[in-house]
Structure formats: C-alpha cells, structure tokens
Amino acid sequence: MGAYRLNLNLKMSLTLQTPSSTTLSSASSIHSTTRRSTSYFSIRSTLSPKTIRCNSRRSYPQTRASASSINIASTTELDAVSAFSEIVPDTVVFDDFEKFPPTAATVSSSLLLGICGLPDTIFRNAVEMALADSECYGIENPNARVSCFVNKAFANVGSDLAKLVPGRVSTEVDARLAYDTHAIIRKVHDLLKLYNDSNVPPERLLFKIPSTWQGIEAARLLESEGIQTHLTFVYSFAQAAAAAQAGASVIQIFVGRIRDWARNHSGDAEIESAQLRGEDPGLALVTKAYNYIHKYGHKSKLMAAAVRNKQDLFSLLGVDYIIAPLKVLQSLKESVASPDEKYSFVRRLSPQSAAMYQFREEELVQWDHDSMVNAMGPAAVQLLAAGLDGHADQAKRVENLFEKIWPPPNV
Q1: How far, in Å, CA of 26 to CA of 14, rounded?
Q2: 50 is known as an active-site residue
Q3: Most exposed residue of 94, 142, 222, 309, measured as fewest CB within 10 angstroms of its CB?
Q4: 172 neighbors 106 (Cβ within 8 angstroms)
C-alpha cells in the first residue's frame, strides 16, 4: 500500500440478539457528527490464531425480566438494568471474551478500511479473495468492477463474521444510495445473493439503511419480501413513526446527538417542546417512539444509541436495546445495587405505559414523503445530512483503496 496510510479508528456497528422470546440483531455503527470512540480490541478467533485490532461495537445478550421492578438487594447495577433492556457496549476491549463475549457484528466501509490497513488479520484473506474474484475481474467498466469488488468484500467478511458470532451480521448499505429506493433494494438483493452463495441464511442478516424517506420505503418493500432491515440516522418522531409503519425490524435513535444539537442550536419545534416540558429531547424522542410502536402494534424493535451516562440509561429502562459506553458499563458492573440506592431500578418504558400515552391527531397520520419531510425539524435535517456525508466519505475511501491495491499481491 506504499505511503497510503489508513486511519485505524474503526467503527463496527453491532447487531443484536432479540430480547427474551425471539432473536434479533441490530447494529450500531452510527457515526458521523458525534465524537468517535478510539479504544482498540483484539479478537482471538476459533477460525485462526491470528489477532486483529480495531475499533468495534458489539452486543451482549442480557436476560430481561417481565416485572416492572426487581429485587436488587444483592446484585450489580448492570444485572439490575439488564433485567429490563438488552444492554449493548458502545466500544469494548475484546481481550476478555469471558467478560465481554461478542455475539454479533456489522460489516461497514470503515471496517473494510481497517482490515486493509492491518496485514495480519483473520479477515484479510476475505478481502483479497474478493479482489481476485473472476466474475468482478472480467468487468470492463472500472466503476462497475470496483463496485463488484466492494460487494464481494462485504459479503466475504460478513460470512466470516457469521462463523464467529451467534447473532446476526448487519451489512451497511452505501449511504450514497440514500435517496434512491430502487438502488437500495438492488444493492441489498446483490448482497443477499452473495451471502446465499456463501450459505449464510437470511435470518442471520440485517441490512442497515439510512432513514431518508427513500430508505424507509426501501425498508418497507424489503421487509415485505422477508428481508430484515435496520433503519439508522433517526432524529425525529416523523422518521421513527414512518419507519415503524414500514415494518423495519430495528429503528435506531441517537439520544446524545440530539442533546448535543439542542445545546448548540435553536429553532427546532420538536426539541423545544420537549425542553418546555423539562425533558431531555433525546430521551423524550426515544420514549415517544417506543410508545408509538407499542401502542399501535408495530413489530419494530427500538434501539437507543449515543447514551452518555448512567442516568440516561436508567431513564430508558424497558426500551429494547440500549447502547452504552464502556465506562458506563464498567461503572454499572462495579456498583452493587442496594435497596437504598439513589436510583430506583424500575422499568420506565412498557407496553402498559405506552397504551396510556396520548398522541396528537397530526402525529397519527399515514406518513408519506411530504408529511415526513415537512415534519422533520432542522435538527433531524442537519444530523441526517451529516451522517450521510460521513458514511459516503467512508464508502468512497474504500473504492479508492481498492483501486490502488487491485489486483492484490500473491494472487
């Protein structure tokens, strides 16, 4: 690769296993405008004695109780909160598999960049085999050829990950397709075919799609085919409700990013309404979306991401998934919960409380392109655009890199 040097600050979003009775995974490589994690981990794989080091986000299954509160006389805070939501680490050092066993993974452009920058990883061969693929090799159009290589690399790495983790592997869809429904669907079908060729069953897969209207419409059509989707970059109730109506398997809301925007900007009616009620706007959006999903019987699971502290986490107990920073998880694990604890470990979100929630008439429409776009305030518009720009840049970097190193050495 010569002087070409990669930024190894890698993001690996996670897919989740479903709470209790069903199995579901989701992802959370959710990165664009917010601060990036920089911890490194090493995976010791059963496939190879080699070690890889890069940034990652993975999930750990937790047991959830059905009661609204639990006996916390002799348990850790992590055990207590895990009774209500699946708690997922945002960034984890994976040297200790017994303490933090990875259960699922996401293939993203940033992951491919990291793999290509590390010469001795268990996934390097998956990328090199993609670059040597005879089907792609024979394509004369250079843009089509590199797109073929990228698809092969995603599926090869994802197939290897499927052998390593028991949960689902989520595959990122190119953010540059975010405003083209049919292009998103074609990309997912292409990737699904490659996974099928590698004998990875569709139930082990999720496809991560930006929550533009076109992305939500693509999710609706894909879900109707039985292909499971994870809608990301959700920053408004309109997006969340439209995603739920589309039947997305997972909907991801970024608590901390919304809060950050609110601290530095004004003029967003949805955010200011929450603030006037004395509520944190990010937490309020998760609560509202959860209540909407459960009150009206939508199948979607809700993921709260960019959770910054323990109080955030306590305020969201009952949501399907909570992605928490490692420092928060460590604090929860090291803290013994006792009856006189300052915080009460009580389920904050539940189908029962959702049934009591009152929505305004204008919030109960059948969402379409115009109504959703008009209802998105400046926070959602700006944060969505920033997220798409960041992921599009990563995708372009992968293509540029593949053009530089194709054909791979020793092939």
Answers
A1: 6
A2: no
A3: 142
A4: yes
Place of tokens 């348990």: 75
Among 91, 30, 104, smallest CA distance to 256 is for 30
* Coil, strand or helix at 217: helix
DSSP readout, 288-304?
HHHHHHHHTT---EEEE
Q: Is 318 left (phi over 0), alpha (psi -120 to 50) or beta?
A: left
Per-residue pLDDT of the chain (411 residues; tens, 9 = 90+): 433 333 333 333 333 443 433 333 333 333 333 333 322 222 323 233 333 333 333 333 333 444 445 554 558 888 888 889 988 776 433 334 455 455 667 789 988 998 888 777 788 899 999 999 989 988 999 999 999 999 999 999 999 989 987 888 889 999 999 999 999 999 999 999 999 999 999 999 999 999 999 999 999 999 999 999 999 999 999 999 999 999 999 999 999 999 999 999 999 999 999 999 999 999 999 999 999 999 999 999 999 999 999 999 999 999 998 888 878 888 888 888 665 554 568 899 999 999 999 999 999 999 999 999 999 999 999 999 999 999 999 999 999 999 888 776 655
Of 11, 187, 208, 301, which is the active-site residue?
208
Q: CA 380 to CA 397: how far, in whole Å? A: 26
Q: Could you write out the DSSP letters of every residue in 317-369?
A: BTBSEEEE-HHHHHHHHHSEE-TT-SS--B----HHHHHH----GGGSS---H
